[in-house]
Amino acid sequence: MEKDLRYYAKVHSVESFGTVDGPGIRYVLFLQGCHLQCKYCHNRDTWNMAGGEYRNIEDIFEKIMRYKNYINKSGGGVTVTGGEPLLQVKFLIELFKKLKQEKIHTCIDTSGMVNITEDIKEVLKYTDLVLLDIKHIDSQKCKELVGMDNKRELEFARYLSENNIKIWIRQVLVPGFTDNEQDLLKLRDFIDSLKTVEKVQVLPYHNMGRYKWKKLELNYPLEGVADATEEDVERANKILSKDY
């Protein structure tokens, strides 16, 4: 029998006490499936939609509610990430409706590389915060890095801004790929054009996800690329950050 995708999600894993994917202590739900091909991806095993396991909404919601007191006291909430969580938007709508009834803060960690459909607009009505991973501000470099240009993610960012949805911008700093000073200045100009950005996070590239590619018997695309250093991150922060 075919699953009703409003009430079932393909889940990769969960983290019950996350502290880096939004404010406070967070229940983090990793959904299976991604349509990008990020060369630096540290969750390569989340790409295939055939992976993971189906979980029903009541089971997921019940487990979240076990942590409600910890979540709320810390100013936390629930973050849905992936993979690309917006590929399962119908499920997200139903889950976020239930969470808002319980006054639980909701957050989506996404690339924003989706068409802004009515379903996307609907889920964003119940979304308190979007962690928006800007893959690359240069469209051609973005395509080379993740397999798609950046047109949709920049449109998504503008939609969030125009509809007063809070944003934390994330930029993975990959030496030789996303650390060019002119690109970072261009990204800063774009961020400054948005009205609802609360924070900019520079995430240093590391190759700790390499073993997942090897486990899947795949060549790691960034073999030999050095990890981003503290100095690299500090330099990018000076360009991108201001007092949000």
DSSP strand count: 8
Helix-strand sequence: EEEHHEHEHEHHEHEHH
Coarse shape: globular
The mean pLDDT is 96
The tally of helices reads: 9
Give the oligomeric state of the chains in this entry, treating copies of one chain as homo and distinct chains as hetero.
single chain
First CA to last CA: what distance?
Answer: 49 Å
Radius of gyration, taken over Cα atoms and rounded to an integer in Å: 18 Å
Can you give a write-up of this model?
This protein has 244 residues and is of the alpha/beta class. It contains 9 helices and 8 strands. It has helices at residues 57-65, 68-73, 89-101, 118-125, 139-146, 151-162, 181-192, 210-215, 230-240; strands at residues 8-18, 26-31, 53-56, 77-81, 105-110, 129-133, 166-173, 197-204. It has an 8-stranded mixed sheet. Helix 3 (89-101) packs parallel to helix 4 (118-125).
Describe the structure using short key phrases:
eight-stranded mixed β-sheet, 8 strands, alpha/beta, 9 helices
Give the gist of this structure.
The protein is α/β, with parallel strands linked by helices and 244 residues long.
Topology summary:
Blueprint: E1 8-18, E2 26-31, E3 53-56, H1 57-65, H2 68-73, E4 77-81, H3 89-101, E5 105-110, H4 118-125, E6 129-133, H5 139-146, H6 151-162, E7 166-173, H7 181-192, E8 197-204, H8 210-215, H9 230-240
Parallel strand pairs: 2-4, 4-5, 5-6, 6-7, 7-8
Antiparallel strand pairs: 1-2, 1-3
